[in-house]
């Protein structure tokens, strides 16, 4: 009889522990106030890029969003709602993604958001799901082969992006100075490069690859590793912990590697 009671107690304890973290290999979302609030919305609200091929692109033909970060959002919706379609995408730029999160208009930002020590003071970030580096796209006809050729040139960058700091620091190290022009979107920078208003389009290399054409080339130099994380509001610590657990699981089981391969990143 005593043995039977011990077995029952052990079983109850194991069940309780399993219920707080994982259930059948799937992360349990119950018990989190932040996740419960998202459930209350009936949909996961995510800020994504709409102009970055491979990561977040709104297909002009279908109107649908495509890319690695879009798939990550769907996977999270699957975990929370059991339905990958329970996600609402909001297009963001480097300048708008933070304020939209601050205002509570979106729950998460999954938008090539580089984790920096400065940004960690304002937002919570998950474990890095993709690492890139800042690069430069130039016209083949310009005869630019590297940073050393950019003296007096103008570099187009996105507003509030980290590219500007990374390129300036690299230029300072070799004594080359140049100017910057900021734009709200990547297509605007590409248009400026095409029209000659800027000499260089600078952002992370994988993003540049989406804008490469027969007239342009990505230079081989790379600057400052850019680690992308999923951002949430600073006060949403439970949500951050929940998302971080999912990212770690998908890094470990090859899910994210499969998406990187699928979108040729």
From TrEMBL:
<dbReference type="InterPro" id="IPR051455">
    <property type="entry name" value="Bact_solute-bind_prot3"/>
</dbReference>
<dbReference type="InterPro" id="IPR018313">
    <property type="entry name" value="SBP_3_CS"/>
</dbReference>
<keyword id="KW-0813">Transport</keyword>
<keyword id="KW-0732">Signal</keyword>
<dbReference type="GO" id="GO:0030288">
    <property type="term" value="C:outer membrane-bounded periplasmic space"/>
</dbReference>
<protein>
    <submittedName>
        <fullName>Glutamine-binding protein (GlnBP)</fullName>
    </submittedName>
</protein>
<dbReference type="GO" id="GO:0005576">
    <property type="term" value="C:extracellular region"/>
</dbReference>
<feature type="domain" description="Solute-binding protein family 3/N-terminal">
    <location>
        <begin position="43"/>
        <end position="260"/>
    </location>
</feature>
<dbReference type="GO" id="GO:0006865">
    <property type="term" value="P:amino acid transport"/>
</dbReference>
<dbReference type="InterPro" id="IPR001638">
    <property type="entry name" value="Solute-binding_3/MltF_N"/>
</dbReference>
<dbReference type="Pfam" id="PF00497">
    <property type="entry name" value="SBP_bac_3"/>
</dbReference>
<comment type="similarity">
    <text>Belongs to the bacterial solute-binding protein 3 family.</text>
</comment>
<feature type="signal peptide">
    <location>
        <begin position="1"/>
        <end position="23"/>
    </location>
</feature>
